[in-house]
Predict the 3D structure of the following.
Amino acid sequence: MALVKFKNGFNGTYEIGGQVLQINENGIHPYDMTFGAVASCLYSTLLDVCEHRKIELKSSEVTVDGVKRTSVPATLEHVTIRIVTDTDTDIEDLKKAMNRAVECCSMVQTVAEVAEIEYSIEKK
């Protein structure tokens, strides 16, 4: 369960798993949390796919960014996901694993209902 508390306007805390994140104009914004959810869900799904395909990812960096629509409701219009990973796996096998992970990731598919998604994976 996540608990979000606000006081004095857009000044809040997001409490989950013993951690507290500050939500405000100078801290985390709502889409920051969405992008973090997309990144972590996709990476978790990618690890599952890689395990099944006997692919080892030694370390990875996942970046997610997006553009909101200006019309109401201001849903996401475009999202870019990029994974850079340290692996000995052939890049084509890695891309196939990424494609499968994108197909299976619930967060990516949820966001894909409102936004165009562009994604890539590359080796360090």
Notes: The mean pLDDT is 96.
